[in-house]
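Can you give me the bound-state structure? Components:
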Amino acid sequence: MKGRSRKAGLPPGTLIHIGARKTPEPKITIIDYDEATFQERETKAIEECFLFKDKPTVTWINVDGLHQSEILEKLGECYHFHPLVLEDILNTDQRPKMEEYGDYLYIVLKMLHDKGKGSQIEAEQVSLVLGPNYVFSFQESGGDVFDQIRERLRTGKGRLRKMGADYLAYTLVDAIVDYYFVILEKLGERIELLEEELVAHPRTETLKEIHTLKREMIFLRKAVWPLREVISSLQRGESPLVQKTTGIYLRDVYDHTIQVIDTIETFRDILSGVLDIYLSSVSNRLNSVMKVLTIIATVFMPLTFLAGVYGMNFKYMPELEWRWGYPVTWGVMVAIGVAMLVYFRKKKWL
Amino acid sequence: MKGRSRKAGLPPGTLIHIGARKTPEPKITIIDYDEATFQERETKAIEECFLFKDKPTVTWINVDGLHQSEILEKLGECYHFHPLVLEDILNTDQRPKMEEYGDYLYIVLKMLHDKGKGSQIEAEQVSLVLGPNYVFSFQESGGDVFDQIRERLRTGKGRLRKMGADYLAYTLVDAIVDYYFVILEKLGERIELLEEELVAHPRTETLKEIHTLKREMIFLRKAVWPLREVISSLQRGESPLVQKTTGIYLRDVYDHTIQVIDTIETFRDILSGVLDIYLSSVSNRLNSVMKVLTIIATVFMPLTFLAGVYGMNFKYMPELEWRWGYPVTWGVMVAIGVAMLVYFRKKKWL
Amino acid sequence: MKGRSRKAGLPPGTLIHIGARKTPEPKITIIDYDEATFQERETKAIEECFLFKDKPTVTWINVDGLHQSEILEKLGECYHFHPLVLEDILNTDQRPKMEEYGDYLYIVLKMLHDKGKGSQIEAEQVSLVLGPNYVFSFQESGGDVFDQIRERLRTGKGRLRKMGADYLAYTLVDAIVDYYFVILEKLGERIELLEEELVAHPRTETLKEIHTLKREMIFLRKAVWPLREVISSLQRGESPLVQKTTGIYLRDVYDHTIQVIDTIETFRDILSGVLDIYLSSVSNRLNSVMKVLTIIATVFMPLTFLAGVYGMNFKYMPELEWRWGYPVTWGVMVAIGVAMLVYFRKKKWL
Amino acid sequence: MKGRSRKAGLPPGTLIHIGARKTPEPKITIIDYDEATFQERETKAIEECFLFKDKPTVTWINVDGLHQSEILEKLGECYHFHPLVLEDILNTDQRPKMEEYGDYLYIVLKMLHDKGKGSQIEAEQVSLVLGPNYVFSFQESGGDVFDQIRERLRTGKGRLRKMGADYLAYTLVDAIVDYYFVILEKLGERIELLEEELVAHPRTETLKEIHTLKREMIFLRKAVWPLREVISSLQRGESPLVQKTTGIYLRDVYDHTIQVIDTIETFRDILSGVLDIYLSSVSNRLNSVMKVLTIIATVFMPLTFLAGVYGMNFKYMPELEWRWGYPVTWGVMVAIGVAMLVYFRKKKWL
Amino acid sequence: MKGRSRKAGLPPGTLIHIGARKTPEPKITIIDYDEATFQERETKAIEECFLFKDKPTVTWINVDGLHQSEILEKLGECYHFHPLVLEDILNTDQRPKMEEYGDYLYIVLKMLHDKGKGSQIEAEQVSLVLGPNYVFSFQESGGDVFDQIRERLRTGKGRLRKMGADYLAYTLVDAIVDYYFVILEKLGERIELLEEELVAHPRTETLKEIHTLKREMIFLRKAVWPLREVISSLQRGESPLVQKTTGIYLRDVYDHTIQVIDTIETFRDILSGVLDIYLSSVSNRLNSVMKVLTIIATVFMPLTFLAGVYGMNFKYMPELEWRWGYPVTWGVMVAIGVAMLVYFRKKKWL
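Here's the bound-state model for the whole set.
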C-alpha cells in the first residue's frame, strides 16, 4: 500500500512512480523480428524505439526500471498512449487488469519471484501494451522469466517467429503464469515440511510459519485471482488485435490460471487443517500436563496428611505407643497409593 | 444509526437534518469557470447561486453545513430538484448511491477523515448534484479534500478548466477515493505495529486494538463497497450528462475503488490471522504456566511426604535411631528430585 | 413456526387463522378520500365496505384482528380475491412477498413492535391488497405505525390526498420500513450497553445477552431480507397499478430497506466481535487465576518441604543441635522465596 | 449412500432397487375420477392399470413397495416410459428433481416421516409421473401423507375432482411439503427443550443432542433445498401438461418451500448459537473450578508452611519457649487467612 | 503439484509427461464395432490405429501409459489433433474440463481408485477424445473401471453396440462417475467407524484420522466439482458430435455428479461436527481432571494444615495436654472432610 497516498489530490495522468527505485538506471531492450529477420539491441535512448513504429515487423520493447518518467512521457507522445495508461504503468500496486483503447490493449499482471531458499515471495508488476505490430513490456527491475522466450526468438524455432504481436503477448503472459507453478511447488514443499514438523515436534515457531504461509496465500490469491478475468476477456476475442488462433492458446493459459487458483484454495484449506491440528495438540498437551499434576497430587496429598497426623504432639495418642504402629501406617500408605493408581488406570489416565 | 428514527412517520420529502450540527453557520462557495474565465466567491445568501443557472460556464457550488434547511428549499425550487433528493442530502446516514433524474444526477459518497494520529476514522457524507453545466456539492462541515482541485481551477493548469461539469464531478469523486488510500496506509501502519507488539509483548490491550481495527474495517467496507456500483453505473455512460471521454477517467476511479475494497479484505484476513496468533499465544502461556506448577508440585510433593513420614512420632521407628538415617534420607530425596527432573527433560517440558 | 402444522393436509384456500387470537373482536376502519372529500368511519359489518367498491375515490379499509374468517370470505366474494390470497392473509407466518393477480396486487410485510424498554421485538404480519382505487390492510391486532398517515389524510396536507391508491400503499410500506430504524436504534443502544458492560465487568449474563441479540438479528434479517425483492419488483413498475411517479418514491423505500439490511449485517459482525472478546477475556482470566496459583505453590512448596525436613525426628541431625540452625534456616527460606519472586517478575508474571 | 455402489458398471436403465425392502409385497391402488364419477380399487396385478390408459378421466395409480422390478418393467412398456425414469424410481437415494419427457413429467421428492416421539426423522422417496390424464406415485413403503387427499376425492368436496391430473399432482406435492411443517415444528420443540436444559443443567448428552439435531438439519436441507428449483420450474409453466390455473397454486407451494428452507437455516443458526453457549459454559465451569482450587491452595499453603516452621526440631527456637507463642501464631495464621480472603473478594473471585 | 514446474518456460505444445511413469510400457487396445461386427486387438504400434480412421464403424482406442510421447505425436499428426490437446493429455494434473475443437471434443476427467482396505484414494487422469466415429481414451496406467463396458461390447447385449461414438463416450464417463459412489461408500464407512470410536474411546489418532478424511474430501471435491460443468455443457448438446438421444443419458450422469458433490459436502459437514465433538470432549476431560484435583486438594489441604498445627513444638499448647485432644481433632478433621464433600455434591461436582 505504501507510497500510494503520495498521489492523493494530484490530477489524473500525473506520472509519479510508486514503490522503491529498484534498478539504478532504466534499460531498454528492443527486439524486432518477422519470420525471416531478427534484430536485438539494447539502448538508453527511448527515441530509438520510434524507428520501429511503422515497420511491418513485430517489435518487442522491454523497459526495465520505471523511475525516469520522461521515458514514458516521450513514449506516450510518440505512440499516442492515453495519459491514464502511462500513469498506471508507474502505479506498481495495480491489480491485474486488461483495458482496451481501440488501437492498443493495456494489460497488467504480477510476475512472482522468490530470491533463494526459504525467502519470501516477491511480486513485480509487469505492464504489457499490445499494439497491431508491437508489444511493450514494462518491468520494475531487471531479471525476469522471459529468457527462454528471447532464446526462442533468436533461434527462430517453433511457432513464435511466424506469428504476430498478439502471440508474443500471449507467450509473455504464459511464461509469467507458468512460473506461478514453480512458486506453488516451493510453497507446497514448505507446507509438507510444516506438517512433518507438526507430527514430530510441534513448536511455537510452527504457528508462526503457518501464519506466514497463510499470508502468502492471501498475497498470491490477490495477485492471481483477477488474472482469471483478464485472460478470459482476452480470449473471448472481442478485440481485433487478438487473432482467433491465438484464442485457443489463451484458453490454455486460462486453464492454467484456474489451476493455480484451485491449488491456492487447496493450500488454504490444508493450512486451516494444519492450524487446527496444532491448536488441538496444544490443548492435548495441556491435558496431559494436568493429568500428571492431578495424579501426583491425588496420590501424595492423603499420604502427607496421614504422616502429618502422626506427627502431631498430643500427649495421648495410643497408636504412637503401639509396637506395630509405624509399619502398619506404612502399609496403609502404600495401600492408599496403590488404590489411587489402580483408580487412575481404570479411568485410562495412565 | 442515531437520529434516523426521528423521521419515522413523517411524509417523504420532509427536510430534517440528521446528525449533529457540525458547523456554526452554513457557508456557500461559488466557483464559475470556463477555459477563459474564472470567478470565485463566498456568500451566505443562496439566491446568488441562481444567477449562474443559465450561464453556459461551468458552476461549482459548494455548501458546507446542512442544518439550515431553508437553503435547500430555495435551491430545490430554483433548480427543480425532486423533494426526495433534498431529503437525502440531509439524511447523512445514506449509503453511497447514484440516482438519475433526467436533468441531473444525484450522487452520494462518504468522505473519510482522520483527525490527527491514532484517532478514529470519521466519515462525512458528500452529496453531489451534477447538471448540464453545474455541480452542487453538499458537505456536513467545512474542511475537505478538494483544496488541490480549487487550486487547479484557479491556476487553470491541466485539463480541468477545458472540460465540462461531468469532468468536475469526476475530479471530486476521484479526490475522495484517492484519500481512501491515505486512510488505508495509516491503518496498514497500525496493523503492522500491532503485529510487532504481538511478537514482542502481547497484552490485553492488543486484543482491544485488534477489535477496534476489525470494526473500522467493517465501517470502511460499508462506506466503500456500494461505491463500486455507483461508479460502475456512472462509467457505463448511460446518462447523457456524462461524456464518453470522461468515462475512461471514471474507469480509472473504478479500478481504484476495487483496489480499496481488495485492500480492506486483505486487512480483514490479516486481522483474523493476528487474532488467531494472539489467542494461541494466550493458550501457550497457560500451558507454560501449568508446566511450571506441575514440575514444582511433582518434585516437592513426594519429598514433603517423605519428610512428613520421618516427622511422625511413633515410638518404634528403627530408621530414626539409625546413625546414617538422616544423610541417607537426604540422599534419597535428592535422588527422587533428580529423577523427576530427568523425567521432565525427557518429556521436553524443561 | 407454531400452529402451521394444523393446516397440513387441508385443501388450498382453507381459511384457518394461524397464531394466537390477538384482539377480542375484529375492527374495520374505512377511510375514503380524494383531494376534495374525506370520510372516515369504523364498523363491524364488512358489508359496508362494498359500498365503496365502485366509487372513483380512494378507499383504505383496515382490518384489525383476523380470527373471524367470515369477514374475509365475504370480502373475497365481493372483490373476487383468489382463495390463496385469503388463505395467505390468515397465514401469519409468511415471509414478505408480493404477488400480482391482474386486478390487484397482494403484498405481505412484517411490522415490528417493541413493547416497552428491554423487551423483545415482536413482529406482526401486515397484508396489503392494492387495487385500482382501494387499499386493504390486514393486521393481526390493533395498534400500528399508521397513525401519522391517518392524521395526514384527515388534515389533507401534503401530497397524499392528491395521489392515487398506489401512493397510499407506498405510504403504508414506508411507515413500516421507517419504524425499522426505530427498532434498530434501540438494538444499537443495547449493543453499546453490552460493550460497555463487557469492558467494565464481564459476567455470564453478558454471554446470554449476546446470544439473545444474535437471535434477534436472525429474526430481523428473516423479516427484512425478502422485503428488498418485494419493493424492488414493485418499483420496477411492471404492474399498471403502480404509477411511474410513485416508482421514484418506492426507490427511496428500497434504499431504506438496503440500509436496514446493511445495519443488521453490521450489528451481526459487531456481535461476533463482542463474543470473541468475551471468550478471550474468560480465558485470560483463567490464565491469571492459574498464575496466582502457580506463584503461591512454587513459593511455598519448597519452603514447606524445608520445614518438613527439620521437623524429622532422626536422632542424629547435626543441624538441629547447631546454635544458629534456626535463624540460618529462616534466612535460607526467605532467600528461596525472594529468588522465586524475582524469577516470576523476570517472566512478567507479576 | 448404502447400496448405490451395487450398480457401478451396470448399463443405464438396469432396474435394481436400492435400499432395504420396506414392505413385504407391493400394493397397487387405483383411483379413477372425474367431476361426476369416482372409482377406487386395490390390486396386485399391474395389468389392471392399463385399462385406464386411454380413458378421459383422471387416474391416480399409487404403488407401495419397489422391490419387484417386473411391475415397473410392465408399466414402462405400456406407458412408454424412458428406461432412465424406471431406473430412477428404484434409485431411492435421488435428490429431488423434475424432468420433462414430452408426454409426461417425472418428479422426485422426499416424503418425511417421524415414527413416534423422540425418534429420528426418516425420508422416503416419492416419485411422481404426471401424464395428460394420469398420475403415478411410487413409494418405498405403505403409509403416507395422502389420506386426506383420498378422502377429498371420495367425498368430491372442493376443487379437486373438477380439475385435471396436474392439479392432483400439485395436491400430492402440497401434502408432502405441508408435512415438512409438522416435522419442523417437532424439531423446533426439541431445540427449545435443548435450550432450557442448557440453562438449567448442561450435560455431556446435551452436546450429543446438539450434534444429532445439526445433522438432521443437514439431512433436511439436502432433502428440501433442490425442491425449490423443482417447483419453480414446474410453476413457470413451460410444460403444456401444467395448466396456468394450477401455476398459481404451485407458486403457493413454492412459497412454502422457501419458508421451510428459511426455517431450516434459522434452526441451523440457532443451533450454532446453542453450541457456542454450551462450549463457553464448559470453559466457565473450568474457570470456577480453578478459582476454588486456587483460593484453597493460596489460603492454606502459607498457613501449612507456618505450622511446619514451628514443627521444626531445632534446639534453639526462642519462640517455642515463649509463653504466648502458640496463641500469637494462631493469631498470625487467622490474619493471613483473612487477608487472603479480602484480597480475593477485591479481585471479585468470591 | 509436483513436476508441473519442469514445463515452465517451454513453448506451448511441448510434449512432456508430468507425473511418475506408472506403467513399464504403453499398451494400446483397439475395439472396433458396429451393431453387426466386433473386433478387438492389442498392439504396441500406434500406426495400426490409423487403419480405422475412415471406417464407418465406431472405434475405441485405449492407451495405457503416457510416458512415450512419440505415440501421441504420431496420433496427433494422423488425426490432426491440436498440439495443446496432446500437451494436455500428458499434463496429468489437469482439472476436469471439456474443449470443443470443431472435428472432435476433448474431455478430461479423474478416475478414482483405492488400492485395498484403509489405503488412500488415488486419482488417475483419463483423457477422452470424441470424434465422429472414434473415441480415444488415455490413461496413466493399466487397470480401469471399464471392464464391464468391454464385456457389454463383446456380448453385444443392450443398447451400446447400436449407438454411435458419443454413446460410447457417455458410457465411459458414466462408468467413472459410478465408481465415485463406491469410493464414497467406503469413505462413509470410515466416517461411521470414526464416530463410533469417538464415542467409545477418543484418542489422538482420531484427530489425525479426521484430518486425513477432511483432506480426502478436499481432494475429491477438486476432482469432481468441475465435472459438473463439463457434463452440463456436453448435455446441452451444442456440439453436433453429441446426439440428442445421448443428451438424456448425459442428464442422468449429470444428476449423479450433483449427487456425488452433495454427498461430499454432507461428509464435510459431518466431519466438522465430529471435530467439534472431539475438541469439546477433550476440554470436557480437562474439566473432569481438574475437578478431581480440586476436590482432593480442597479436602486435604485444610486437614494437613490442622495436623501441622498440632505438630508444632510450642511449649505451652494446652490442647496437646488435654486427654481428649487427639480424638476430638480426628473428629474435627472428619467433619471438615465430610462438609467439603457435601459442598461438592451440592455443586454437582461429584
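A couple of observations. Chain D touches chain C through 60 residues (CB under 8 Å). The first helix of chain D runs from residue 47 to 50.
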